[in-house]
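Figure 3 (text version): structure tokens given as input.
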């Protein structure tokens, strides 16, 4: 396992977290996780924003490496790129383990007194 996988960098994951920081975009990612590849129109169903806004949100997600598009006839079909979500998860896991170690050090310090 490479050092990058063992200890992911926050800088590498920051664009992913920034892209997921919007409720519309996280909703779209959740839909792609649950339903698989979807068209732009399908991703916009029920969100209550314009098609142009949906396209902008998808561009942000694509720029962060979270989704990619392919053409199927006249439709653009969007698919989740799970590798980038996994990278963000590894980053959060790493931060969580750092917190766990810090809490354990604090617990030992308090118990020593």
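Below: residues designed for each position.
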């Amino acid at each position: 396992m490479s050092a990058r996988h063992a200890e992911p960098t926050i800088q590498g994951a920051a664009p992913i977290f920034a892209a997921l920081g919007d409720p519309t975009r996280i909703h779209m990612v959740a839909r792609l996780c649950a339903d698989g590849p979807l068209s732009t129109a399908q991703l916009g169903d029920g969100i209550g924003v314009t098609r142009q806004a949906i396209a902008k949100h998808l561009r942000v997600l694509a720029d962060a490496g979270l989704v990619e598009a392919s053409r199927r006839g006249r439709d653009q079909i969007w698919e989740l790129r799970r590798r980038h979500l996994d990278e963000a998860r590894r980053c959060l896991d790493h931060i969580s383990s750092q917190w766990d170690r810090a809490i354990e050090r604090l617990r030992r310090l308090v118990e020593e007194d």
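The longest strand covers residues 67-72.
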